[in-house]
TrEMBL record:
PANTHER family: DNA-DIRECTED RNA POLYMERASE (PTHR19376), DNA-DIRECTED RNA POLYMERASE II SUBUNIT RPB1 (PTHR19376:SF37). It comes from Rhodoptilum plumosum. One of its GO terms (biological process) is DNA-templated transcription. Pfam families: RNA_pol_Rpb1_2, RNA_pol_Rpb1_3, RNA_pol_Rpb1_4. This is DNA-directed RNA polymerase. It is an enzyme of class 2 (transferase). Residues 1-30 form the RNA polymerase alpha subunit domain. The keyword Nucleotidyltransferase applies. Keywords: DNA-directed RNA polymerase, Nucleotidyltransferase, Transcription, Transferase. Residues 33-196, 223-327 form the RNA polymerase Rpb1 domain.
Length: 348
């Protein structure tokens, strides 16, 4: 309900006849609300730690020892008592995560592309294991992520609901969470400060990118002061100037962010969460590692709150990036007092 404690209220309606109770049960029972009639797709799916766990559990290099497999089978909801044949027999038996995951799947068929599937790849077999194939309830290949077990149309949740109904879908969601959370509990998953640090060469690229952007903003300031700026259609000199400055600074943030993201390894814990779809995005990585970027209030750069300046710490009529809310530091490096103040303004 997204309620918080700043004056939010709720109302309770009590059904008072058998007919009303039956109607409310039919309309409001949770399994009956898995697929929304508004968009004809699920509104419930696997999220957060379980979603990340699904990705880790179904990777190609996830192998489980006999004792752990026995433990996991105890967390399979309606296990039939048959231990599957291990994928590797010698020198010791090893099971894959996909085998155990298949035990809780209903008898459905599904072919999906993973979130990280490259656009230019159209081969039936995927080198990065980004094509998910489920054949008759058996996960043949593919890493399971948000596109498969999230609330997307024609994902696993939706297909199960269409083929087997609401009750079975409800059971599937619960079984995935019980099984996968047990795996995550044993495997462990955390983020350290090491996950936020890019290498030296990347940091040099970031610093150069930001300096180049500041230089181009300075050139724009000079042009505007000399009335040499080319006006954008339907905009005044000042509006054109602000638009161009914003573009320059935002592209600096995005460029420095891409180089920072490119330098992180596949095993990086933040990158893992982004690629699973459980938390975070490209912009979070770029702000943590590279540069927080321009802070806006009501869609504009920080305006003059003082006489012809933003704060008393800047000179009058300063149009440069720093005095108008551009944060060139990353969260890792920390913000200066003025950057912190502008960031607080943008945040509310």
């Amino acid at each position: 309900y997204n309620a918080d404690f700043d004056g939010d209220e709720m109302n309770l309606h009590v059904p008072q006849s058998h007919q009303t109770r039956a109607e409310v049960q039919e309309l409001m029972l949770v399994p009956h609300c898995i697929v929304s009639p508004q968009s004809n797709k699920p509104v419930m799916g696997i999220i957060q730690d379980t979603l990340l766990g699904c990705m880790l559990f179904t990777q190609r290099d996830t192998f489980l020892e006999r004792d752990f497999v026995m433990n996991m089978l105890m967390h399979v909801g309606n296990w039939d008592g048959i231990v599957p044949q291990p994928a590797i027999l010698k020198p010791r038996p090893l099971w894959t995560g996909k085998q155990i995951f298949s035990l809780i799947l209903p008898q459905v068929n599904l072919a999906r592309k993973n979130q990280t599937h490259p656009d230019n790849e159209d081969t039936p077999m995927s080198p990065g294991d980004t094509r998910v194939y489920i054949s008759n309830g058996n996960l043949v290949c593919g890493i399971v992520d948000k596109k498969t077990v999230g609330s997307s149309a024609n994902g696993l949740i939706h297909v199960t609901w269409k083929e087997f109904g609401a009750k079975r879908t409800d059971e599937l969601i619960s079984e995935i969470q019980v099984l996968v959370n047990h795996y995550v509990l044993h495997r462990g998953q955390s983020i350290g400060i090491g996950d936020t640090i890019a290498d030296d060469s990347t940091m040099r690229v970031v610093i150069n990118t930001i300096n180049a952007a500041k230089q181009s903003v300075q050139e724009l300031v000079n042009k505007a002061q000399n009335r040499a700026l080319v006006l954008l259609p339907g905009k005044t000199m000042m509006e054109s100037f602000e638009t161009e400055v914003n573009q320059a600074l935002n592209s600096a943030r995005d460029k420095s962010g891409s180089s920072a993201q490119g330098s992180l390894l596949k095993s990086n814990n933040i990158k893992r969460m982004v690629s699973a779809g459980s938390k975070g995005s490209f912009i979070n990585i770029s702000q943590i590692c590279a540069c927080v970027g321009q802070q806006n209030v009501e869609g504009k750069r920080i305006g003059y709150g003082f006489h012809r300046r933003t704060l008393p710490h800047f000179v009058v009529d300063d149009l440069g990036p720093e005095s108008r809310g551009f944060v060139e530091n990353s969260y890792l490096r920390g913000l200066t007092p003025t950057e912190f103040f502008f960031h607080a303004m943008g945040g509310r």
